[in-house]
Amino acid sequence: MEHKDNYDRLLPMPVKLGFGIANLGDTVITEFVGAFFIFFLTNIAGVRPALAGTIVFLGVMWDAISDPIIGTMSPVHTGSRAQTSVPADIHRAPDPADYHDVHKSELFS
């Protein structure tokens, strides 16, 4: 029999459904905030739709580039004996693209 580590095991369907249902509330709120942000930019702030889309795109790209860089600075990836990333996150500069990840703060996970 082939050796399987913890990352190769499949989760049972009830566990997957439980995590999905639990994440539904966060996802609905996050998507509502994102949609309202686009509405705010175009209808209230008077920004052209193409520019509003570019603003959101730049935020997502900043998030995609900065998160892996910051993740490599975590004590878990640096070989530190600390098994938590709380000390690294306390001193981390805020990521402006994380406005949609406020509820997923690594400080409280």
Order of helices and strands: HHHH
What's the pLDDT, averaged over the residues? Answer: 75
Largest sheet data: none
Q: Could you give the distance between the termini? A: 35 Å
What is the CA-based Rg, rounded?
18 Å
Structural class: mainly alpha
Return residue spans where pLDDT drops below 50 for at least 5 consecutive residues: 102-109
Number of strands: 0
Number of helices: 4
Q: How big a fraction of the residues is strand?
A: under 5%
* Silhouette: flat
Helical content band: 55-70%
Question: Quick summary of this structure?
Answer:
60% of the residues lie in helices and 0% in strands. The protein is mostly helical. The model is unreliable at 102-109 (pLDDT under 50).
